[in-house]
Amino acid sequence: MTLRMELGDRSYDIVIQRGCLQKAGQLLDLHRKVCIITDEGVPAQYAKTLAAQCKDPVIVTVDAGEETKTMDTVTKICRVLLERGFSRKDCVAAVGGGMVGDLAGFAAAAFMRGIDFYNLPTTLLSQVDSSIGGKTGVNLDGVKNIVGAFHQPKGVLIDPDTLGTLSPRLYAEGMAEAVKMALTSDAALFEKLERGDLPVEQVLEGALTIKKAIVEQDERESGLRKLLNFGHTVGHGVESAARGSLYHGECVALGMVPMCGREVRARLIPLLERLGLPTACDLDKEAIWQAMQHDKKSSSSGFSAVFVEKPGQGFVKQVSFAEMKAILEGAWQA
Ligand SMILES: NC(=O)c1ccc[n+]([C@@H]2O[C@H](COP(=O)([O-])OP(=O)(O)OC[C@H]3O[C@@H](n4cnc5c(N)ncnc54)[C@H](O)[C@@H]3O)[C@@H](O)[C@H]2O)c1
Fold it and tell me: Which residues pair with 144 in a beta bridge?
């Protein structure tokens, strides 16, 4: 199936189809220089399959892991583009998870003030969430995604076959973002996730349909799009404090738990447990709190945080530092 992100002259197709990586040459404009960014942990065959369909490809393989999502790596990618004589007519393509997508997208946004970017996500997290919507960026001094740009892809190819090589833990972290979409915006999808028999294509379609509708209404996150930050206020703090020991989606799972009303939490925790996601953590709360204060979602007056009291009805509320600290102090208690 194909969804279309309607954003005027920045509109694009999101193809969700088994085997579509092999058809990239028919679905994307690859008759030009294409810089394919991937990482060491992504099976190399995926980038090679794409390269085989490009007129003039170069593959850049960066180290796997969130530590690679830096300005230094963006500089390295831009240097390759410069040395290979890339022009504004050429493009960058990401083949990998959300880390590679955010990094490659930002390099494409920055090089020559913006060249075309294709996203071919290969983790469940990047397929259900990060590959669409145009948020690109890198981390700086331990602060997540603090340097970045809005740069919409020209096309997104989602091939669920690539999920076959994912570890169960990586699969589970992707489900956390799908739960996030459902809890904030679609009670029926949340119920289907609770039933536990939804084929992955339907998880993808459900989650991407929600995200697409939100991005179409609020591309630059002035209001509604903040809903997609559900679980991320505490989650980003946990991610910094965990120093690489927890995946992004696992941190989002932990971050959602304290932001729910009691009844929702009573349904969320068993769902997360069944999906293999953490629902409690014993990281130092002071370290989490320090990281949370540097987050983009905080300001001098407090946090713009997302809460869910009823499935499908997330809402954004301004909370003071004291209120947020109290939520963190009470988080994950039995
Ligand atoms: N831009 C957005 O809107 C947005 C939204 C959510 C998350 N993110 C970002 O996404 C990142 C997390 O993404 P992620 O969870 O995909 O992590 P990731 O990109 O680091 O990938 C996780 C691991 O999976 C490996 N991998 C990728 N594809 C594979 C495959 N098919 N088979 C086997 N291994 C594979 C990678 O090598 C890596 O080791 C974070 O940087 C987060 O900030 C961005």
Answer: none
Spatial separation of the C-alpha atoms in residues 1 and 119, rounded to whole Å: 17
Number of domains within the chain: 2
Do both 247 and 284 map to the same domain? yes
**Does ligand 1 lie within 6 Å of residue 176's CB atom?**
no
Question: pLDDT per residue over 276-307, tens digit each?
Answer: 999 999 999 999 999 898 776 667 789 999 99
Residues of the chain whose pLDDT is less than 50? none
Q: Nearest C-alpha to atom 16 of ligand 1 is from which residue?
A: 97
CATH number of the CATH domain containing 138: 3.40.50.1970
Distance CA 166, CA 178 (A): 17
Q: Are 130 and 224 in a shared domain?
A: no
Q: Which pLDDT does position 326 carry in this prediction?
A: 96
Q: Which amino acid is at 155?
A: G
Whether residue 210 is found in the same domain as residue 95: no
Q: Tell me how far the alpha carbon of residue 63 lies from the centroid of ligand 1, in angstroms.
A: 12
Helices marked H in the chain — which ranges? 24-27, 44-51, 71-83, 98-110, 124-125, 168-185, 187-195, 200-217, 232-242, 248-256, 262-275, 285-293, 321-330
Which distant-in-sequence residues (6+ apart) come within 8 Å of 310 by Cβ? 187, 261, 263, 264
Buried residues in 221-249 as b, exposed as e (16+ CB within 10 A) = beebbbbbbbbbbbbbbbbbbbeeebbbb
**In angstroms, what is the span from residue 205 Cα to ligand 1's centroid?**
19
Residues 146 and 174 in one domain: no
CA distance 102 to 122: 13
Q: Is the pTM value of this prediction over 0.85?
A: yes
Residue 145 Cβ contacting ligand 1 at under 6 Å = yes
Are 56 and 85 in contact by the 8 Å Cβ rule? The answer is no
